[in-house]
Specification:
mainly alpha
Length: 99
Amino acid sequence: MYYWAAARDFALDSEAVDEGIRASITHAFDIEDKPIIEDVQQNMGARSFGEMKPLLMSFDKGGVLARRMLADLIDGKRRLQPTQAHSQDADQVSQAGAR
């Protein structure tokens, strides 16, 4: 499944603009993205990203780290840790409830 979204701040009541944007994005996906995604999946077969041993470039670091973190979470090797801001928000909610 593939999800996408688009936003605009003009012609908000125009169904013609809605349809034009939808048609443009659908065309780009069907003609450009989908064939590549399908070819990559066919070439990968049942192998995981890690098993493929892809050539990684410096600009791949964020995506690679995210994949590793998600794999660790799925495998139970890592637990989500709240951020400091999240912890402070939770503390404030707890304190407000105690009043």
